[in-house]
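COURSE: Structural Biology Practicum
ASSIGNMENT: Worksheet 4, Part C
STUDENT ID: 0417
INSTRUCTIONS: Below are two proteins. For each, the amino acid sequence is given first, followed by its structure token string. Answer the questions at the end about the second protein only.

PROTEIN I
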Amino acid sequence: MRSGILAVVSGASVVMGMEANPIRRVVTLMQDMQKEIESEGEKEKELYEKFMCYCKGNTDNLSKAAEEASAAIESLSAAVKSEKAEKAQVTEELAQHKKDRADAKQDLEKATEIRNKENKAFVEESGDSKANLDAMNGAIKTLEKGMGASMFIQTPTATKLKALVQTLGMSSSVDASDRETVMAFLEQSGDYVPQSGQIVGILKNMKDDLDKSLNGAISDEEAAAASFAELKAAKRKEIEAATSAIESKTERAGQLAVSIVQNQNAADDATKELGDSQKFLANLAVACKEKTADWEARSKTRQEEIAAISEAIAVLNDDDALDIFKKALPSPVAAPAAFLQRGATKNNAVVKARNLIAATTRYFSRRLVRLRTFSTTLLRST
């Protein structure tokens, strides 16, 4: 192999018409090739580092996005659950407020109806009491003026007084004997026998009793009216409070309904985003791993080839290879054969150099192709 490569190199110098040392030309080409390989390695390293930066950056971003999406899903799901519970409670409270308002309205209607009946009864009763008092006052005034019994009995006032005394009955605080005396006075036919002062006194006592009864009725009416006014005010407040609560709870229920839909949609979007992020992250991890494996393999191969080229250059620069080439130069025609004979030893420098040159043929740049072609031409000469 050593004699073959030297023979090829010397043959190539004759064919190409070059006076320069062919081994030096090969070494130069191999050095250029080594530089080109190293340059391509640097460029590829730069691209690889950029891709790794892309991998790391996107991995961090996607991991962060996935964490944020997970946190958002948890938060939104909790919000939806809480809002649904609140909405159920608000709906229940809203129904209770409506019932309370209806009950308050019904209570107010019943109380109003009762009050109206009471007031009507009072008006009727007080009207009768006032009429009786008027009759009683008229009778007293007439008798105080000295009108005789026979004349008084003929007046309308006497008729009203007689009916009034009869209706008082046991309800009056007037003594029964006094009432009988008045009735005897009103029923007699002739001159008035008892003293007029006695009858007037009895009538005044009856008048006082009527006043008390009327005043009591008025007091009861006023108390009933005041109580109704308080009840009415309280029920109106209940109705207003219930109405206000119904309005606010209705509004809140609507807000919760909208918020539940929005948060649920947001949770669904976050779930989809999380799935997309996790899927892309998994694909990116595979791509980055494959890129790293490819880069490591290419880097290893490149280093092996650079080492092979370096070793080949060292071999070709060896004094042994140069000495063999120089000895082959005087007889260009016979040089290949002589070189072959000199290089017959399997482990000599030229054989090693040729093998190392052949090992570099896996590269694809134009410079390497030229070197591979040139090396092939040299090798064929062996």
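PROTEIN II
(use this one for the questions)
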Amino acid sequence: FALATGRELPDDEGWGRGRRPVINVNLYDALGFAKWKSRQSGERYRLPTEVEWEHAARAGSPTRFPWGDALGSNRANCDGCGSPWDGESTAPVGSFAPNAWGLYDVVGNVGEWTCSMRDPDPMHSFERCDSPYESRRRVYRNGGWSDDPDRLGMAFRDWNAAFRRTDDVGFRLVRECPGCALTAGDGSGGRIADQESSAEVMR
């Protein structure tokens, strides 16, 4: 994507690319990649809303983490999770077990941009994408490699200015699939079918 569009490669902090999640990307980098990937593939890719992100992260689980309410040790990457990368760097995607729907790193490693804007009343923004021209604070979900364990958990939310790039926030895309079969009553309206990891997306 970066080479095809003449963009500078995002800084990997010397940790490597390949299976590492992309970092140092802002909201507009993520939106640009989703638009480019949609054109290249003929599918529709976009950032998830907060509701979609949490729906996919939970994979039907009501607990704080995909595996239960206790963090345990070496199940995720954060500053105090008991992993080899704790507080030092991102971990390669696939270093920990996925959730029940096969999604990796919905807890720890990097936070992930959503298309929802921070709102004093979160219910106003949870279920929609806000205008890409709105540059005020956008929500990202999930705690990252440098966060304390109390900032992990699938209900965790934080926000950043849309133009800001950091070494602990990346993104994950939704691929819309209107014709896909859905589980009865899942409330996705035919739009949630697949999420792709942010690993390798900006090589």
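ANSWER KEY EXCERPT:
Q1: The radius of gyration is 16 Å.
Q2: Confidence is low (pLDDT under 50) at residues 183-203.
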